[in-house]
Automatic annotation (TrEMBL):
Any single GO BP term: D-serine biosynthetic process
Domain of life of the native organism: Bacteria
Enzyme class: lyase
Protein name: threonine ammonia-lyase
Family, per entry: Belongs to the serine/threonine dehydratase family.
GO molecular function, one term: pyridoxal phosphate binding
CDD domains per record: Thr-dehyd
Organism: Mycolicibacterium madagascariense
CC cofactor: pyridoxal 5'-phosphate
A Pfam family annotated for this UniProt entry: PALP
Entry function: Catalyzes the anaerobic formation of alpha-ketobutyrate and ammonia from threonine in a two-step reaction. The first step involved a dehydration of threonine and a production of enamine intermediates (aminocrotonate), which tautomerizes to its imine form (iminobutyrate). Both intermediates are unstable and short-lived. The second step is the nonenzymatic hydrolysis of the enamine/imine intermediates to form 2-ketobutyrate and free ammonia. In the low water environment of the cell, the second step is accelerated by RidA.
Domain Tryptophan synthase beta chain-like PALP residue range list: 18-301
PANTHER family xrefs: SERINE / THREONINE RACEMASE FAMILY MEMBER, SERINE RACEMASE
EC number, as in UniProt: 4.3.1.19
Amino acid sequence: MSLISVGEIQAAAQRIRPYVLCTPLIPAPWGDRDRPLFLKPEGLQSVGAFKVRGAFNAIGRLDAATRARGVVAYSSGNHAQAVACAAARFGIVAHIVMPRETPQVKIEATRAHGAEVVLCEPGRREAVAAEVVERTGGVLIPPFDHPDVIAGQGTIGLEIAEDLPEVASVIVPVSGGGLASGIGTAIRALAPAATVFGAEPELAADTAASLAAGHRVDWSIEDRNRTIADGLRSQPSALTFAHLRQVLDGVITVSENEIRDAVREIALRANLVAEPSGAVALAAYRRGATPPGPTVVIVSGGNVELGMLAQILTG
């Protein structure tokens, strides 16, 4: 299987530059002394999450005639908003398939970009999206299973290597695996001495199980839906799993309470809002399993319902 190259990620960085924020590395002086902590706050992006990078790269690579047909996506939220945002900027139609259990804040944010939202039952996203593609003639922009999406997410790794050449470890949330695949590819090429770890909820630890087994291990949607980290309920594709096997040094799994503690820590110590999925990497850092040296934690998104945030902060 053909894996993306750092050259493709560098090309993606040029393509998406007008549309995305080069997020800062925020020093966190309360981190461990032997593992200086830096936060990469992708919640500062216009849609509140890193997904905007892959969406703009994938749609930006389409020729004008293909793009004019419109786009279709399926997502639990952040990819939905990203594709809707990119479609609006390019002036094209977007149809977004979202599970009914998606937090309402993410559904409304997607509609606010002008997209048509199609709600579906759990486990039916891909099938319903295929039906929408057939009905509309739009182009499918998958949330992670596409080289252009992976390359777009990998631009985060370019920024880390440029801003912190001495980086020792990078911790990345893992769900479908596009983010970790892209960042890992960039870090392996530009900071080869650094380690790259995935972070995953214990209740949706299919990637950890798959890497341990040497092949993809299926977890039921009912099992994966147990975690509070609703953005981390997908499973790697054949494409992303092939990347993860090459670029990850391991996967650190964390409990639901550790995820909540990390959301609280980011809010109270860094003055940033992180959704549970976005805080998983910090929870993994707190496990202390990474080697000494400067450590970058990817805070992948901040789209959390206010009620849940309030409950976490006061719980």
